[in-house]
């Protein structure tokens, strides 16, 4: 077999996992990355079975530290004013030590295969036209394709890292949650956000106020303010109680509360359209779940089959079929258009789903039928008013 000439542009989770899988197959790969010395710092979470699958595919990952939040809770208010729906997510949730993940994947690749280069879409197209097999792993929206950032659907979040014992004092029953949609601490906003509270390696916890998706999404400053209100660190009128206590400055509030680190999240949930013929992998392609923002578990799952395809000279298979992609887009459209109470109740409907259906919706690689069944059941689990709002939002975008 002749050695393929492969160029991977971008070494985030997608590019690095693909480069590692290609290297293990003895493929000659060149990689370029705009910031090759940068250490990943985002907290990457995924489902436990996804992590197990990744470790089976890459035995080098078995030494990477991770933390588990067993079956995290989902709490969402009901529109009727009845007590909120409490549900458990079907699977255990894992957050990996991201820097260790990066090191373990990089260790599989030969040294000096990466150059510090910024390749624009036109450069990638030119190289592909000259016969190089180019894989665009530059993420959902690389700078040269960022037409209108304000119009892009983004997920945003602001989080604080605390010692686990201290963080649990803020959580009912001391347990983590994937989503707590209650907003009593800051009224009934038209655009609700939720608390994401998960264990981190090193006996720490991340408490993060998240806007699942918005166009425009809530600002990080607004989410920080809401997180402080939710945790009782500030009064509903921003600053007033803080000032009285002498802690008006949010940095000072966090210092006084023993915050170990903070996290700011902002990423687009849909990929920018690439020119025809440019191959993609990761969130540049089909790995990102547009209605949840998750991608890393799917990237680690699919890197092996992508490398197999490259070795065989075939196109890289999509993470998911056309039908599931269309359903996830429908879900995204509904999320973008729904107002507060209907949005919250949609998640009460999700919390009430059975295990199989929850996982079918969360997994980007699910087939269309189980995905559609999960979405229909979630919709059916809500009140008539919410069903009508969701149908309008999904079909008409309002
Ligand atoms: C703080 C934070 C927390 C997150 N938590 C989670 C989570 O818990 N679970 C989850 O699944 N997802 C999470 N995400 C989303 C996650 O970051 C992305 O889904 C994931 O990084 C996508 O991987 P990727 O390799 O496709 O793209 P990226 O990670 O965006 O990587 C793209 C790479 O390409 C490089 N690049 C870009 N342009 C060029 C260029 N022109 N030339 C050369 N190189 C270039 C970039 O420097 C970067 O290294 C989080 C995001 C953030 C910001």
UniProtKB/TrEMBL annotation:
Coiled coil: none annotated. It comes from the Bacteria. PANTHER family: OS02G0190600 PROTEIN, PTHR39757. This is Lycopene beta cyclase. It comes from Dietzia timorensis.
